[in-house]
Design goal:
The complex is a heterodimer of chains A (314) and B (249). With 314 residues, chain A is α/β, with parallel strands linked by helices. Chain A has helices spanning 18-27, 45-52, 73-83, 96-108, 211-224, 232-236, 267-270, 290-293, 302-313; strands at residues 3-8, 33-41, 57-64, 89-93, 112-117, 119-122, 125-130, 135-141, 147-151, 166-169, 180-185, 200-204, 227-230, 257-261, 278-283, 296-299. Chain B has a nine-stranded mixed sheet, sandwiched between helices. Chain B is globular, with a radius of gyration of 21 Å. Bound molecules: flavin-adenine dinucleotide. Flavin-adenine dinucleotide sits between chains A (205-207, 231-234, 245-250, 262-264, 266, 268-269, 272, 283-285, 288, 301-303) and B (14, 38, 121, 179).
């Protein structure tokens, strides 16, 4: 039986997120599947072009409505549910956007959701992590139920460019609910690489001791062209903003190089970095659990080592 | 009565390093410490603080699960919840079914606010709150790190990938909570004694008119791929040399 997969695009109003390209790549591993990306936005013109250029996408559906200027689950979910009829699967990224939205869609469709898909074994069989990644389960969706899924983006490379999908406008079917209103977002825009897509990440923990000391890491990150991350303890203590948190309840990332500085390596933190290609740990405690998974471990005081690294890197 | 409904789940304590059964059929739970899911504890703490500010009159905790969930409900009563509801079932419900149970309890309890954890740390599904909001056709605000209530509205700050987002939602609504919302109180011994006398009502799925569907089957559990143990380097220079050699710098 051939599969028909609908992928809900994530974007910031101007640019499609890399997470969407990763969802497309994940969906493309379902055997014999036709892929459609749906873009809900206030203005879909450029976004739909970007989606159409993703390799493997056959159709792009656009839904244009002012309410979609901000990603409100309460407004997007009924729209997607109204379009979902012909599809066997509805996928979105396992980002805060998708985690918020997709279960609402699944409930409207009265169907099951598979969260954090890390591999597809067949159209009905999926692998996903549980217990903060300490166990991997294989699940089977029963009785031909429609599958709603969130895609664990760290498990997939983004779909390449080079596609040329057909773009179709879908009429906004639903008068969006007025009970949920966007107020603001405090996006700390920076010119540093984005934590979720950066090839290199320098990450700091409680050991940094203050927001001022945390600046040490920004210096090192800038020298390396790296993004900055943080442990929960560092975020809770106010040394770093919440969007930098890496781990089970923060971001799950897969950089080429992850440098953990003054981070002990609690399982909830390690969940976020298991897919990093190379992990470096700098910690003054030789028994810190981070050393169990680090490719390169350096025991010592970060306040000596970080300036040395800076100097050597020139 | 201005009531807050708080959903809680009994899970393996977050400090336990879980082990998978040799036959891959599940995770070993015999003799393992069980606790209230940490996110749900934060949801309850928030409900209690709202009540203590005078913005709610009653806090009701509910769980769906087998008989051995009762100690966790008692913990919630000791923290300060006024009463507990235990929807007792030995079937492990899928999130949509749990949301269905909560939906029928809303009919009964008429809360103005439902607070849940953003995810349970066992299955890491993160679905129940959003599903409940959909079934109830009410607003949702997920991953809350701040909740401000007025008579008919809530202003909720959410932890999203971009930073902090603020939504305004009409009540009643479902809010799922993140770690930075508050720090739950410790339970004191006299409270544990008092909690023994607080009402804990047991309900069945039948009495709520819920017939859970099973749409998902877990075929096997496996340990995650292990990273191979790395090497120690002696100083900053050695570290940079090693990274260069691997082509990382
Ligand atoms: C439900 C739940 C979810 C969670 N989610 C997350 C999550 O998403 N992400 C996350 O990170 N955590 C998460 N945590 C928290 C986690 O359990 C740990 O508490 C946290 O990761 C610890 O942060 P840390 O390593 O910075 O601090 P600590 O554990 O305090 O470690 C500090 C480390 O710094 C070292 N150190 C101190 N001084 C120096 C120095 N001068 N030079 C070098 N090293 C030094 C110490 O040896 C120590 O190893 C979660 C917890 C729970 C319960």
């Amino acid at each position: 039986m051939s599969q028909n997969i609908l992928i809900v695009a994530e974007h910031d109003g101007r640019t499609l997120s890399v997470a969407t390209a990763k969802c497309v790549a994940c969906a493309a591993t379902v055997p014999d599947a036709a892929l459609t990306v749906v873009v809900c936005a206030a203005d879909t013109a450029t976004l739909s072009q970007q989606a159409a250029a993703l390799a493997g996408v056959g159709t792009v559906l656009t839904v244009e409505h002012p309410v979609h200027a901000h990603p409100l689950a309460a407004a997007i979910a009924p729209q997607i549910a109204a379009l979902a009829g012909p599809y066997t699967h509805v996928f979105g990224p396992s980002s805060t956007f998708g985690k918020d939205l997709m279960p609402r869609i699944a409930a409207l469709l009265k169907t099951v959701q598979v969260s954090d898909i890390m591999a597809i074994e067949s159209a009905t069989r999926f692998r996903r992590p549980i217990y903060a990644g300490n166990a991997i389960i294989t699940v089977e969706v029963l009785d031909g139920a429609q599958v709603v899924g969130t895609v664990r983006t760290a498990s997939f490379q983004p779909a390449a460019a080079g596609g040329s999908a057909r773009i179709e406008a879908a009429s906004p079917l639903i008068e969006p609910p007025s009970h949920t209103r966007f107020v603001s977002v405090s996006a700390a825009r920076s010119d540093r690489p984005d934590l979720q897509t950066a090839a290199r990440v320098v990450s700091g923990g409680r050991a940094l001791g203050s927001a001022e000391n945390f600046q040490l890491l920004y210096g090192l990150a800038d020298t390396l062209g790296a993004a900055v991350g943080a442990s929960r303890a560092a975020v809770d203590a106010g040394y770093a903003p919440n969007e930098l948190q890496v781990g089970q309840t923060g971001k799950i990332i897969a950089p080429e190089l992850y440098i953990a500085i003054g981070i002990s390596g609690a399982i909830q933190h390690l969940t976020g970095i298991k897919d990093a290609r190379t992990i470096v740990a700098i910690n003054k405690d030789p028994d810190a659990p981070i050393f169990e998974i680090a490719d390169f471990g350096l025991v010592g005081d970060l306040f000596e080592i970080v300036p040395q690294l800076q100097k050597l890197l020139g | 009565m201005k009531r807050i409904l708080v959903g809680i789940k009994r899970v393996v304590d977050y400090n336990v390093r879980i082990r998978i059964k040799p036959d891959g059929s599940g995770v070993l739970t015999d003799g393992v410490k069980m606790s209230v899911n940490p996110f749900d504890e934060i949801a309850l703490e928030e409900a209690l603080r709202i009540k203590e500010r005078g913005a709610a009159e009653e806090v009701v905790v509910v769980t769906v699960g087998p008989a051995d969930c009762q100690p966790q409900l008692r913990t919630c009563l000791a923290m300060g919840a006024d009463r507990a509801l235990h929807v007792q079932t030995d079937t492990a419900l899928e999130p949509l079914a749990t949301a269905g149970v909560l939906r029928s309890l809303i009919e009964r309890e008429q809360p103005f606010l439902v607070l849940l954890g953003k995810q349970a740390i066992d299955d890491d599904n993160g679905q129940t709150g959003q599903m409940l909001a959909a079934l109830w056709d009410r607003p949702q605000a997920t991953f809350a790190s701040k909740i401000e209530l007025t008579e008919e509205k809530a202003r909720v700050t959410r932890e999203v990938d971009a930073g902090l987002e603020t939504l305004e939602i009409d009540l009643p609504a479902v809010v799922t909570v993140d770690l930075r919302l508050n720090e739950p109180r410790y339970v004191k011994l006299p409270d544990i004694m008092k909690a023994k006398k607080k009402p804990l009502e047991t309900l069945t799925l039948e009495s709520l008119g819920v017939t859970p569907r099973t749409q998902l089957k877990t075929l096997r559990h496996e340990p995650p791929a292990q990273r191979s143990k790395g090497v120690r380097v002696n100083d900053a220079a050695e570290l940079l040399a090693a990274l260069k050699q691997k082509g990382l710098l």
